[in-house]
Write a structure and sequence with these properties.
Layout lengths: L10 E7 L5 H14 L4 E6 L9 E3 L5 E3 L1 E3 L3 H6 L5 E4 L9 H10 L3 E7 L11 H7 L2 E5 L1 E2 L6 E2 L1 E4 L15 E4 L10
The structure holds adenosine-5'-diphosphate (ADP) and zinc ion.
Zinc ion (ZN) binds next to loops.
C-alpha cells in the first residue's frame, strides 16, 4: 500500500486486540517513528482512563509518549488542525462519535492511527472498533500471551465479579487468556 501513496492521501489504521496484547506499545512505536520523520503528530487519550498519567499514553511495559487527555471527541479536531498524523489510544472509551471524526481527519489527508479493545470482558465486540475496522485502510490484530497456558491470547478475562462494561484497571482486575482458558462470566 505505502508504495503507491501520494502525499495528500489520508487513511485510517486500527491496532486492536485484548488487554496486554501490545496495542499501546505498537501505537507509541508508530507515532515515535512519525516524529523522527519530523511529521506533525497529535496524540490523544480519553481522560477517564485514570490508569494512565493524564498527559501521556503509557504501556504496561512503561513505554510512554506525551498525549492530550480529552473529555469530548470534539477536542480531537480542535488540536489536530496542523497535524499530519493523529494517534488515539483506548478508543473504545470514546463511543461511536469518534467514527465521523476519524473519517473527517482522514479525508483531510491525515494519517489516523487508533488503538483499542476489540472485545469487552464478555467477549462481545466493543464499539466503535468493529465500525472502525470496516472503514479502515489498515488493520493490525495484536495478541497477548495466555497467563494460564502460554498460548497466544485474544480474550480479556475479568478476574473480579463486577458487571459494569467498563472498569478501568490492569493486572489486579484483568488477565489475558486464550480461547481455551477463557471462562465467560456468569450472567
Ligand atoms: P495493551 O495496550 O494492548 O493493553 P501494552 O502495550 O500496554 O498492551 O502492554 C504490552 C506489554 O504488557 C507487553 O510488552 C508486556 O511487557 C506486558 N505484558 C504483561 N502481561 C502480558 C501478557 N499476558 N501477555 C503479553 N504481554 C504482557
Ligand atoms: Zn490458555
Amino acid at each position: 500500500m505505502l508504495d503507491v501513496v501520494s502525499k495528500d492521501l489520508g487513511w485510517i489504521e486500527v491496532i486492536t486486540g485484548s488487554m496486554f496484547s501490545g496495542k499501546s506499545e505498537e501505537l507509541i512505536r508508530r507515532l515515535r517513528r512519525a516524529q523522527i520523520a519530523r511529521q506533525n503528530v497529535a496524540i490523544f487519550n480519553p481522560k477517564m482512563d485514570t490508569r494512565f498519567s493524564n498527559d501521556h499514553i503509557v504501556s504496561h511495559s512503561e513505554q510512554k509518549i506525551p498525549s492530550i487527555a480529552i473529555e469530548d471527541v470534539s477536542e480531537i479536531l480542535e488540536h489536530s488542525r496542523d497535524a499530519k498524523v493523529v494517534g488515539i489510544d483506548e478508543v473504545q472509551f470514546l463511543g461511536q462519535e469518534v467514527v465521523p471524526i476519524c473519517e473527517k481527519l482522514a479525508s483531510e489527508g491525515k494519517r489516523v492511527i487508533v488503538a483499542g479493545l476489540d472485545q469487552d470482558y464478555r467477549g462481545v465486540p466493543f464499539e466503535p472498533i468493529p465500525h472502525l475496522l470496516a472503514i479502515a485502510e489498515s488493520i493490525t490484530k495484536t495478541l497477548a500471551i495466555c497467563v494460564k497456558c502460554g498460548n497466544p491470547a485474544n480474550r480479556t478475562q475479568r478476574i473480579t465479579k463486577d458487571k459494569d462494561r467498563v472498569i478501568v484497571g490492569a493486572t489486579n482486575i484483568y488477565e489475558a487468556r486464550c480461547r481455551k482458558c477463557y471462562e465467560p462470566p456468569e450472567e
